[in-house]
Amino acid sequence: MSTVLRKNRLEAFSDGVIAIIITIMVLELKPPQGTAIADLAQVLPGWLRYALSFVYVGIYWVNHHALFERVRKVDGAGLWANLHLLFWMSLIPYVTAWAGEHPMAEVAVALYGVVLLLCSISFMLLAWRLDADAGHVHSWGSRKNRLSIGLYALAIGLSFWYAPLGALIHVLLALLWLMPEACKSR
Fold it and tell me: Which of 174, 131, 178 is nearest to 155 (CA)?
């Protein structure tokens, strides 16, 4: 038997999960041990990593809503594709905390990139599934998406060589997605 439900239940569930992800991330932030500027500098890497992760979660939330503007109903495969995306997104607080604590550690920065890569792939799979159900031409395989996948993979590899370079690519990718019209595929 095929499960079909209106999209609003899935959107509400996803919004709740995303809100929890953001809450967990902020709860992982550590306040400075003292009150001097130097104390603030010690926790700054964690705060910056939180800000970057917040932007990434926000990008997924905005794009998730844009995707669901075109969908009326979701079948079982669409539900699982959405859960697949939420699974990888739910790991963002973990890798954010670890990379925030160890901002120049190769493995921490690389794992952060792996989670971002898998979020990106799972979002594209969700979009592909929902577009196919709605009878739309798949637009999520755009040049921008392919570029992102390549840059995430590059960032992972570079993180093992020089972690700050991998982290810089993560920042550049977030900026790329914050400017949706700048790299629109034709």
Answer: 174
